[in-house]
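Troubleshooting: if your tokenizer reports a length mismatch, compare your output against this known-good record of 352 residues.
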Amino acid sequence: MSEKPVVLEVKLTQLSHGGGCGCKIAPALLQQILGDVKDKLPYPDLLVGTETCDDAAVYRLNDSQAVIATTDFFMPIVDDPFDFGRIAATNALSDVYAMGGTPIMALAIVGMPINKLPIEAIRAILQGGESVCRAAGIPLAGGHSIDSPEPIYGLVALGIVHPDRLKKNSGARTGDVLILGKGLGVGIMAAALKKGALSSDGYAQLIANTTQLNKVGTALSEMPEVHALTDVTGFGLLGHLLEMCRGSGLAGEVEFDRVPILPAALPLAKAGYGPGAIERNMDSYGRDVHFSEHIESWQQRLLADAQTSGGLLVSVAPGAVEQVLACFSQAGFDQAAVIGVMNTGAAGVVVK
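Known-good structure output:
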């Protein structure tokens, strides 16, 4: 089934206390919860575990194959059930692409308030997820469901990558150029939607952005000049760049005026819209993020905005910047842009 099914009018966002990747536990609190669990695990074939806060776990099967495993799920970011399913599935598969891999299979994670949602709406959520898996060329091969007080949907995503072409978030090098693949502002637009302040054009931008698969990550894995890769989701651009900086032992520098922003998000950001996750993210960054004096409060908040199914963040050698930008352009990412550089220094981010 390729067309959007007709479903009953259901305000999904009114059934949950949060939505999208804004539901994530704040990075500082998550670090406290994990504690020593983040230490390197004693399995030589476990190429990526929890030690660098990377996008997925990676286990080497043999000299030419490694399996990528990840899971991602959340509560509704939009009211339309089909769109919610599409966004959640696209977001989950992004972690495989962010490791430079190719998805091979997915399993559904489903938690629904059976006494509050019509069967038609639940079915539409699942159909939305299935449509994205078809677009990615993989089977949605099963899953697990529970009766939950709030609607939850997502995927377990499995992928494959050659061990030599694996892209971690910790491989950035001094002098690398930072490229962001999608515009920011998803969390801000979703907050406006919940308050009835998002235009129809803004909603179209929101859906187009959050349902665009980051397939370009697979192509980027072929480039040795791409040293580090991650995707920008619930911790905001600053949070995920900070993870890259900490993993690589470098300092990131961002030029705000070069950061792509979704057109409909800009006036909403200036008007103060945004999810509560922005403040949680800002508090978590602490002294590791520094803003130049001319960076206004709304600009700081936009950089900390919780993205759902956000763009890939690439750390690439200067000589391959045009090749990476061309790769994004050919894949249909028309807002991909250079946003900064990686410098020698204490792990942290400076915004100019």
